[in-house]
Specification:
Helix 2 runs antiparallel to helix 12 and helix 10 runs antiparallel to helix 11. The chain has 3 domains: 86 residues; 99 residues, 2-Layer Sandwich (Alpha-Beta Plaits); 71 residues. By secondary structure, the protein is an alpha+beta fold. Helix content is 66%, strand content 9%. The longest helix has 49 residues.
């Protein structure tokens, strides 16, 4: 029995050795496969360099010719300029603004209706020809999204709060949910932006209902401001009268145990008196002034359907990418074309040799 016990251990050692050998062979084949890929890429790259070196004159000529032709084309073609305007929408007017901007883009970029565009923007048709596109997108700020989510989350019930996560809320937002938007205009005339600014602002906010809503809201705010102003004046009058009473009382000969008593409301009828502290009146005045400042700020912000936060600059700026410039694009095209020509020539020679065998 004792002599037969080591035999299973020897068998296990043999099995483990074979297993490790198989694993080692697998890793060896895997690394050789990876190495073959890099070697193949290196060989292709080397062959390409040898090919270009042997025909360097042709490739150099193609690149130089592309640069020269591209430079001439860029110099004689119109540059594409762009400029941005940032707006703030009121009274849920974002949908109307987006629709109006899409209409402007349709006229300029798709229909190329320079007459209709000129009429809407109060410019000549010759100036409208330069307009190439109108674009709009929401100015998204992660901090604003977090604040919007916080306010939205507070209004939910306990069950809805479990389901509405921040990511789900963020994914549900559309461009219409944001108050600030960026409007971009593309043109081949960099000095056209100030000419179209006022008519464009009026054009994107044109809606009878929204204009009436803005007017009524402004009237309400103005009336509230008038009421607050009247309350402040009355408070000032009351403070002055109270101080005058203080002054008059101070001139009288003091009587022990007496003070300045003013009857407020029905205090006199109930037989009691109430000592009035003028500091309370001053605090109320400051509170009224603060409310009026908030109201005045709201009158300015909500006066129009669309508030312009940033106007168009005096002139546009070049918005072309490198691939829009012919002096960069043509050399690349001619280089690739030359490479394809020599590739087809080489392939033709190879096929001729194979057909003769």
């Amino acid at each position: 029995m004792s002599k037969e016990l080591p035999q299973p251990k020897q068998s296990e050692e043999v099995d483990l050795g074979q297993l490790f050998k198989l694993i080692g062979n697998a890793f060896d084949r895997f690394f050789k496969f990876i190495a073959s890929i890099f070697i193949g890429i290196y060989n292709i790259f080397l062959l390409l360099l040898i090919h270009i070196y042997r025909r360097l004159v042709w490739y150099a000529a193609a690149i130089i010719l592309g640069v020269v032709i591209g430079f001439i084309l860029d110099k004689n073609s119109d540059k594409l300029y762009g400029a941005n305007m940032f707006i703030e929408t009121n009274f849920n007017s974002a949908r109307q603004v987006y629709e109006n901007v899409k209409q402007f883009h349709q006229l300029a970029n798709i229909d190329k209706d320079t007459l209709g565009l000129a009429q809407k923007l109060s410019i000549s048709t010759d100036e409208a020809v330069h307009l190439k596109g109108f674009y709009i997108e929401a100015d998204v700020d992660e901090n604003n999204i977090a604040e919007m989510y916080s306010g939205f989350y507070e209004r939910l019930d306990s069950v809805s709060r479990l389901e509405m996560t921040y990511e789900r809320y963020k994914n549900s937002l559309t461009a219409y949910n944001f108050p600030i938007h960026r409007i971009g205009v593309a043109s081949t005339d960099k000095n056209i932006y100030k000419k179209i600014e006022q008519a464009f602002i009026k054009g994107i906010s044109g809606n009878t209902y929204l204009n009436e809503l803005a007017k009524v809201n402004n009237d309400i705010l103005v009336r509230k401001d008038s009421v607050l102003k009247n309350q402040i004046q009355k408070t000032d009058t009351l403070v002055k009268e109270y101080l005058q009473i203080r002054i008059n009382e101070s001139k009288k000969e003091p009587i022990p145990g007496s003070g300045t008593n003013l009857y407020m409301g029905d205090a006199e009828s109930s037989g009691g008196s109430l000592m009035v502290d003028e500091s309370k009146l001053l605090e109320r005045r400051l509170w009224l002034e603060e409310r009026r400042r908030v109201l005045d700020s709201a009158i300015v912000r909500q006066k129009n359907v669309v508030n312009v936060l940033a106007n168009f600059p005096q002139s546009g700026y070049d918005i072309r990418e490198w691939y829009d410039k012919k002096k960069f694009l043509l050399p690349l095209i001619l280089f690739v074309a030359t490479l394809l020509v020599f590739t087809f020539i080489g392939l033709g020679k190879y096929l001729n040799k194979q057909s003769k065998k």
